[in-house]
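Quick check before the chapter quiz. The format below is the same one you will see on the exam, so make sure you can read both the input and the output lines.
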Amino acid sequence: MLLLISPDGVEEALDCAKAADHLDIVDVKKPDEGSLGANFPWVIREIRAAIPADKPLSATVGDVPYKPGTVAQAALGAVVSGATYIKVGLYGCSTPEQAVDVMRGVVRAVKDHRPDAFVVASGYADAHRIGCVNPLALPDIARRSGSDAAMLDTAVKDGTRLFDHLPPDVCGEFVRRSHDAGLLAALAGSVKTGDLGDLARIGTDIVGVRGAVCEGGDRNAGRVQAHLVAAFRAEMDRHVREHTVTAPAAG
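Here is the expected output.
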């Protein structure tokens, strides 16, 4: 599993840089603008300069409306600013067709500029609360649009977590559908260390966290701490090793 950490600015990114050996992807977002809130282009540039050159930089483009042209321009802005993973929260898409429409525009805008960039179609485990597309539709949306990964987060940050809305076995179905479509599967949403065993068991490719590595566990008031990143990674790797040992052999 890859570990994605989301600082909210340059100062936290410097803390992530101190923990660079323990994370795989640095993700730029603006938590006060939503689950996948977009930060400013200059913040993306500054964070890109603050972290090691060999660490991929991810950027969210927001909990977006169904406005394909607007979203495509936002995605291009993120990749031009230095992000190589572009995450789109399909907040305002109520049907798979709308979501595919948005993501096709994003894929074209991003990959015309940088073919090796990685596009992530993101949905929400608590989609029923905001009226957006069913979480299990995301892998097919990502496949049809030419995206590289499907991701689930939580839209409403009220203390409920990923598994409160979708039990581990349902998330496992999301991962299976993603893999069957040739995509990576990313899961986030107030993920805690106690969730890592299930995340490893179901074959999650990327785990995204913020609150779990912030002081006091608070994604808004707390700040990312390098020692908490290291501890989270150690626990994650332990579960991956245990799953590798206990998983039945193929054949």
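If your answer matched, good. The first strand starts at residue 2 and ends at 5.
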